[in-house]
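Key idea: predict the complex, not the pieces.
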Amino acid sequence: MSVSDTSFRDSRLAFALRQGGGIVLSLAATLLGLLLVTFFIGRVVPIDPVLAVVGERATQAQYDAVREALGLDQPLWKQFGIYVWDALHGDFGQSIRTREPVVDEIRRYFPATLELATLATIFGVIVGVPAGVIAATRPGSLIDQIVRIVGLMGYSMPVFWLGLMGLLLFYGILGWVGGPGQLDAGYQMLMEFELTRHTGMILLDTALNGRWDMFANALSHIVLPAGILGYTSMAYISRMTRSFMMNELGQEYITTARVKGMPEWRVIWVHALKNVMVPLITVVALSYAYLLEGSVLTETIFAWPGLGSYITDALFAADMPAVLGGTVVVGVVFIGLNMLSDILYRLVDPRAK
Amino acid sequence: MSGAEMKRGGVIAWLREPNPHSRTQARLGQAYLSWLRMRRNPLAMVGLTIVLLLLVMAALAPWLAPHDPYVQDLTRRLLPPGTPGHLLGTDDFGRDILSRIIYGSRITLYIVVLVAVSAPVLGLLIGTVSGYFGGFVDQVLMRITDIFLAFPRLILALALVAVLGPGIENAVLAIALTAWPPYARVARAETLTVRSSDYIAAVRLQGAGAPRIIWGHVMPMCLPSVIIRVTLDMAGVILIAAGLGFLGLGVQPPLPEWGLMISSGRKFLFEQWWVATMPGLAIFIVSLGFNLLGDGLRDVLDPRNSGK
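Result:
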């Protein structure tokens, strides 16, 4: 290849730009599609949004006024344009139950979900990665079978049932952990008055306020839902780690390292694991995204005031702006995490094109 | 007896014939070899047994169930497991839990079968068309697929059910509408490898149109990988259906759907634990069965995995 250095760099740059442009374009298209789907769901729904605002006894004039204010007299394509414009500015309309802007409510509920999902992911990585590595180094052994079966069980259990069983065993029978909710009832009352909500995450807020008694109580409440969510993500992470590791251990540089007399733990935990980390980043990002989904059911079981509870509560109150606003936010986070894992992968692994 | 044995040996020899005389013989021989490979995988056989038991349970429900799943008897409510006549106890209306689980297998199977025949067909159609034509069509269809993949499945299903209203058919529709994108991806990838092969060129030269080529010559090639994917996805479908039922958005009472039964037992979880526990065990065992079977099938049918 007789390519001069500068032109090579130029083509690299052009390539990177084209890739970056492609990513931005496809991100924009996906987001637009997401909004299109929620827009259609919102239009097809058999609840009259005007009636939901004005009530049954409104006069025709009031009805028309609200209809105009909501932009429902415009043609459909124009309505969609307005919807996208508003959504880009963080406006998802008003909640029908509380009359508050949906985006403010979501801002209040979201941190709790984020906290739960983050703890669960940490748990999944801490347990899942070593389990996968150990299973891969002894394929077919008893420990490999155990990791595989425990993982498959994680795939096969309904997360809401697992949550109930966890409550029954660890809260009802053993009394090791706190029950549903973020705090005990007594602390819950205190929280309203004595706690400054810096972040909206209960563990961080209690710690920042220096209320360690409250922190301990919050910890006893979060450990079970986070552990159960973490189990499902551990199942996924350990399985993927195992297969990546198996692949890596078959490579020639591993044989070379072994022949040179490198201790086996170093071969596995330093050399091979370093390369396994690359594809593992995408796996962890994806499992983080899936936890958002798992949190919908888990939060209803544990009365956890997060986005999942928000969406399901809104659903039963026929509060469509809230449901769709929540759906869009979850979708955006989901798309964002997917995109992030994609970009990280490209950054870390120079072979990926 | 020896005659029967001879005949059996004859059938196996016919199946193992290295030079098959007909297409059917070749196909059946291939299937027999796959079966032999799968029989060596104990976990896959456990999965197969569970799925077969589910089929038997659903088919013979009226004969297997000791009680009517709908008849209420308030004098016999919330009896613990092991009570004579009620192996798994009774629920808050005095209905026999075992009988309800047995009848519930029909509902689970109904949902699984409906999703398994609708979502893959849609995915196959979109994937093959996208892969065969390429270019602009491919761009548009794959972008749509990406959008649906970008939604978390349960949340999209929730939003759809909110629009369609709760009920078993709407739950199936919502699940199917969220389940097709992976099949489209798989089918498209298969199509891309098949598209440029000589036999497709030969059919095209004979004057076959695009619909005929896609339907008759491309789709059959995509089927094996799609079928493996379907088996692996069935556990997920069962879990989402149960989740919708649990939230009260899927199958409606008094139908004995397992997720719904768990949610009705939630009220007395700490006093009468069995009401919520038993149907959950049923969901767990069945979806574990599908997962084990799907894993085994993939190992057997997908040569890329056979080395592991």
